[in-house]
Amino acid sequence: MIPYSTNLFYEPIPFEMLKTYETKPQLLVSVGDLPAVCHNLTCDFTYTAPIGEITAFTFDAATNQVVITGTDFPIAVEDIRNVKFAKSTCVVDAATLTATNIECTLAREPTCGSYIPKVTAKLGKIPHVSTIVEEVVDCTITDALPIQDLNLLGGDNITITGTNFPHDLEHSVVSISFDDTQATTCVPQISSTTELVCLTSEFDITASAGASLAMTVTINGQVVVVPTSLSFTFRTTIKSGTTLNPNSVSPVLKTQITINLESTFPHALAREDFLVNATLSTNSTIIKRMRVVSVDDTAKTITAMFGGAESGIYQVSIRHAVEGLVGSTSLTLNVGSTVTNVSPKIGSIYGGTVLTITGTNFGT
């Protein structure tokens, strides 16, 4: 209140200075970045001891049925929020539900790994005894394609078929590698219960040329048996691009660039078979696609349009529909304009002096 005034005026009290004394824990709620006020100060929360306990369970892989035994389970199915096992929701059979027994069937195929069922009731998660033993759910691998003529530069998508693979990669840990010296990885891309697709990384070209390698697959901590018949064989050589012309371009002007391939490139050139990109060397998230305009099979050249980009050194990459990745170590593109000279370097203060500026990549 402002003293000695004829009006009553109260300065607003900052929200963060308003406090109430409570004996129970309070729920704190924010909407966006703003705190919300509890209506009538009814945000009390009471912690309780867990109700019920899981003492044992069984899993039937043939029927995907889980039977859970224990004590003090909810006897009304609506009091059980969910049951989960092997990365799947388990649908509770209300007819068999008792205070000591829960039976449920997986809503989808299990994912391999080691698991204990998780039961969440109306008042929270039901704990299990410390002596309970995890159930191991196995994966199987039956086939993989391709397994021959793999590119030493990587970039091959290998489709692995089998059972009990992850339904998605977000909630599982999948590791795939080969048995070469550097344990080259095959990076998981997508997954379903019967198919897992991974993308090969670059191999040691000298060590792996012409080699036959085995694969190791680990899913959720479980090493999956890969049939010995799946031996992955690699090419003996790589095919490369040799030069770019021009190799220095303007950052703002469209420029046609001719890429020369090795004369021994083993496939007839077709424009639609090539994908060409340029990636900024200092920031691999900046990728510029270069549209292939034409090809010359006799000269083994590709002509692609570069549409401009921020200044820097770009690494050009090439993928062919059959050959896969094409070697491009020597294909670097300098994007930027430079001023090398200004002439004359002296002129009238009243203007009228014609300046000649020389440099690179000013356009025509």
Structural notes for this entry:
Strand 5 (80-85) and strand 6 (88-92) form a beta hairpin. It is built from one helix and 31 strands. The model has no long low-confidence stretch (mean pLDDT 92). It starts with 29 loop residues before the first strand and ends with a strand. It is mainly β. Strands 21, 22, 23, 24, 25, 26, 27, 28 and 29 form a nine-stranded mixed beta sheet that branches. It has a seven-stranded antiparallel beta sheet with strand order 3-4-7-6-5-9-10, with no helix packed on it. A four-stranded antiparallel beta sheet has the order 12-13-16-15, with no helix packed on it.
What is the gist of this entry?
This protein is 1% helix and 43% strand.
List strands and helices in order, with pairings:
Elements: E1 30-31, E2 34-35, E3 53-60, E4 65-71, E5 80-85, E6 88-92, E7 101-106, E8 113-115, E9 118-121, E10 124-126, E11 135-137, E12 140-145, E13 157-163, E14 174-178, E15 186-191, E16 195-200, H1 205-208, E17 212-213, E18 215-219, E19 222-224, E20 232-233, E21 241-245, E22 248-249, E23 255-261, E24 274-280, E25 287-296, E26 301-306, E27 312-320, E28 324-326, E29 332-335, E30 338-343, E31 356-360
Parallel strand pairs: 22-29
Antiparallel strand pairs: 1-2, 3-4, 4-7, 5-6, 5-9, 6-7, 8-11, 9-10, 12-13, 13-16, 14-18, 15-16, 17-20, 18-19, 21-23, 23-26, 24-25, 24-27, 25-26, 27-28, 27-29, 30-31
